[in-house]
Amino acid sequence: MKQDPQTSLGFLLVDAARLLRRRFEQENRDMPMTSAQLQIIARLSKNEGIGQAALASLLELEPMTVSRHVDRMVAAGLVERVQDPNDRRARQLFTTEKSRALLAPMRERANTLFDEAQVGLSSKEREALFAALQVVVRNLCAADASANPADDRPGRRTGSAPMADDVKQDILS
Amino acid sequence: MKQDPQTSLGFLLVDAARLLRRRFEQENRDMPMTSAQLQIIARLSKNEGIGQAALASLLELEPMTVSRHVDRMVAAGLVERVQDPNDRRARQLFTTEKSRALLAPMRERANTLFDEAQVGLSSKEREALFAALQVVVRNLCAADASANPADDRPGRRTGSAPMADDVKQDILS
DNA sequence: TGCCAATAATAACCCTGATTATTATATCCA
DNA sequence: TGGATATAATAATCAGGGTTATTATTGGCA
Questions:
Q1: Which nucleotides of C are covered by protein (CB under 7 A)?
Q2: Which SUPFAM superfamilies does the record cross-reference, listed alphabetically (chains A, B) (predicted)?
């Protein structure tokens, strides 16, 4: 039905992402977790106790967006919000038993879908697609930080806190 | 800041699309047209007089989504809605002088941004990215229609009308 | 010490997109 | 000819994402 396929990379990319997300949500209506929530839990599970602002910067989301997500996810029993003992402004986030249990099966389904989306592409082509998208994301993140990527002073970045090196270590991998 | 880059194609794709869109909207706040509206006008300009349902199926969007868009765009003077003389349920859509005038400059800016997003990729890599995304979109569209792509009876498809061949001709290219 | 700038979270509001349900027509066919 | 069926558009409602502005705190520094 797409008689006149997109000739522009940008719109093609946006369309692909939307279609993928739509399919995911359609196929997982029985699951008590959306794709966005899955992504958040996946990140959080590797960074238990992190604050919302830091989580936002990991996900390249606005802090407000994360705040709303956490609201809903707390209500759904997927996340726990605990007062940070060292900072009365901040809350620490933790996954719950429920969300941890959902992580593996949801990832499974997601990967199956991602695979279906790539039917017809060779492994070489898939790797190329993956690598190219990583470049795109890196370009857009860099540009987001400042005009000159080298000039990446912390305060300039949207909602991101200057992060201590040991914290960075926790986050890596 | 993305210390732990996405290892999953799907989330990488969704992230790339979101970042791209965000940058676009940020850089075009002075323009009286959003990226979604640009895409709609681009399609409509090649299919003047089309109905909302048909436009929705061209864009792979739900009819309701298009309906709301048209509401806002009519209010913004970007689209005209005319009663279809042959079908009292339907309205025909037309671009306006205003939206036609915006099409070229907006496309220009969009292409510039898309180009920036691809910095670091060779032309060969860009072509591969483009081709791979087209495959992904095709896979997801086919799967959306029905389990078996061959079994694509019209009534099964979300909101899409069975379309006369001459109309298809108009839409192509 | 005491004030001012940076930060964490969030409220209010807008756009995009989807799902479900309605209403008004149009069609098809018995 | 009529009635079942399909289609066009849209109202209501929900999730995802963003921007701007507020409120508490924290922290640095004069």
A1: 6-12, 15-21, 24-27
A2: Winged helix' DNA-binding domain (SSF46785)
CB interface of A with B, residues 56-75, below 8 Å: 57-58, 60
Question: Measured at the alpha carbon of residue B15, what is the angle toward residues B26 and A131, in degrees to the nearest 5?
Answer: 115
CA-based radius of gyration for chain B? 18
Say whether residue A8 is in contact with chain B using an 8 A CB cutoff: yes
| pLDDT band with cut points at 50, 70 and 90 for residue A143 | low
Q: Are B9 and A133 in contact (CB under 8 A)?
A: yes
Phi-psi region of A159 (alpha: psi -120 to 50; beta: other; left: phi over 0): left
Is B72 a residue whose pLDDT tops 50? yes
* Structure token pair of residue A12: 């093609």
Domains and CATH numbers, chain A: 20-171 (1.10.10.10)
The pLDDT-based confidence of A147 (bands split at 50, 70, 90) is very low
Distance CA A51, CA A43 (A): 12
Question: Cβ–Cβ of B128/A133 closer than 8 Å?
Answer: no
Tell whether B109 is within 8 A of chain A (Cβ): no
Q: A91 CA to chain B: closest CA distance, Å?
A: 21
A172 pLDDT band, cuts 50/70/90, is very low
Give CA–CA dist B13/A108, Å, rounded.
Answer: 17
Q: Which residue on chain B is closest to A145 by alpha carbon?
A: B1
